[in-house]
Amino acid sequence: MDWEAFAEGVWEAVSAHAWDAMYEAPDGSGWTAAVGETWAGALYGVEWNAYGQQAVYHFDTVEEQTNWFDNVVAGAAA
Q1: How do residues 4-49 score in pLDDT, each as one tens digit?
Q2: Dihedral angle of Cα 71, 4, 12, 28, to the nearest 10 degrees
Q3: What span, in angstroms and rounded, lies between the C-alpha atoms of 63 and 32?
Q4: I need a surface site. Which of 22, 57, 59, 74 has the fewest CB within 10 A?
């Protein structure tokens, strides 16, 4: 996989609001996570915070993607 092309596709999808689910921490910290699919069909997860730090994740299955999202949301809510 061309990681650079994948990451570019992720940010294009995020910019176009083409995510399946998004979670923003209710504590006002600015932490946000989203999952979706790029235009090329790759499943992704992304998280970023108010300091501009970003992380992009690639998933092979919807189950992996869903588990990641559920875990990061549960962790943020704790």
Answers
A1: 999 999 999 999 988 899 999 888 888 899 999 998 899 999 999 8
A2: 40
A3: 20
A4: 74
Count of C-beta atoms within a 10 Å radius of residue 69:
21
Q: What is the band of 76 on the pLDDT scale with cuts at 50, 70, 90?
A: confident
- This prediction has a pTM of 0.85
Six-digit token pair at 60?
Answer: 């092979």
What is 7-76 written as a DSSP string? Answer: HHHHHHHHHTT-EEEEEE-TTSS--EEEEEE-TTS-EEEEEE-TTS-EEEEEESSHHHHHHHHHHHHHHH
Q: Report how far residue 1's alpha carbon sits from residue 8's, in angstroms, rounded to the nearest whole number.
A: 13
